[in-house]
Design goal:
235 residues, alpha/beta, Rossmann fold, OB fold (Dihydrolipoamide Acetyltransferase, E2P), 2 domains, five-stranded parallel sheet, five-stranded antiparallel sheet, 35% helix
């Protein structure tokens, strides 16, 4: 269910938006408020997915309310004045509706909201898949399950490697080349003949070294260009 809040000092405007929302499946108006200050208090204590916010209101304007929020729902500005549109979009609002609001234009806004919601859910789903990915590594005499998002970097030492993770370091009897082939190229990159690092864990770097947490790792001349191209894309 998409929870909606309406903040507008004009009762007819609030009633019109509520009427438009009531005929839509999966949309619920949780409250209809006539001033920004009361709206601010409500938003501190209730989860809202979509906020319909008037701009011109006494005591506190809609834009002032919007600027005061640390965590914002998706916001649709509603006003009779077109000149506020630029400032509204600078505040990353979803849409800008000029009164009187037609049902056709309102439904276009709803369609836009549902589109962005679907994109956000797809991104979250992809992140979940990455966070769930893991490999088994032979540590001593057992197979150890290691999640990829916990790996900081891997150091190669002749016939074995050291895998540094958020949970600790594991000695694994494999070659570094084996790990390079097994790990996803979009998340890991070889930066030296003896090191593979997780791109997402790099805190800073120069032309010669990079840092992951408290660890300083050399950046090999032969691997520098590939690292720089990938870390740029990752950022």
């Amino acid at each position: 269910m998409n929870k909606c809040l309406i903040i507008d000092d004009e009762l007819p405007a609030r009633e019109l938006i509520q009427a438009y929302l009531e005929v839509l499946p999966d949309f619920e108006v949780t409250n209809s408020i006539d001033n920004a200050i009361e709206g601010f208090v409500y938003l501190q204590n209730h989860q809202v997915d979509l906020l319909f916010l008037d701009i011109q209101m006494p005591r506190m304007t809609g834009l002032e309310l919007l600027k005061s929020l640390q965590i914002r729902p998706k916001v649709v500005l509603t006003t009779a004045f077109r000149e506020f549109a630029a400032e509204g979009f600078d505040l990353d609002v979803l849409d800008y509706l000029v009164k009187p609001i037609s049902q056709e234009r309102f439904l276009k806004t709803i369609s836009k909201y549902l589109y962005f919601k679907e994109i956000t859910q797809d991104v979250s789903s992809q992140k979940l898949k990455v966070d769930d990915a893991y490999i088994f590594l032979k540590v001593d005499k057992e197979q150890k399950k290691v999640f990829l998002h916990e790996i900081l970097y891997i150091e190669g030492l002749k016939d074995y490697i050291k895998v540094y993770t958020l949970q600790g370091m594991y000695v694994v009897y494999e070659r570094l080349g084996f790990m390079e082939a097994k790990l996803p190229e979009s998340k890991f990159v070889r930066v030296h003949k003896s090191f593979i690092i997780s791109l997402g864990k790099v805190s800073k770097y120069t032309n010669e070294v990079l840092n992951i947490n408290q660890y300083e790792i050399p950046l090999g001349r032969m691997y520098k260009q590939n690292f720089l191209s990938k870390v740029g894309l990752h950022e």
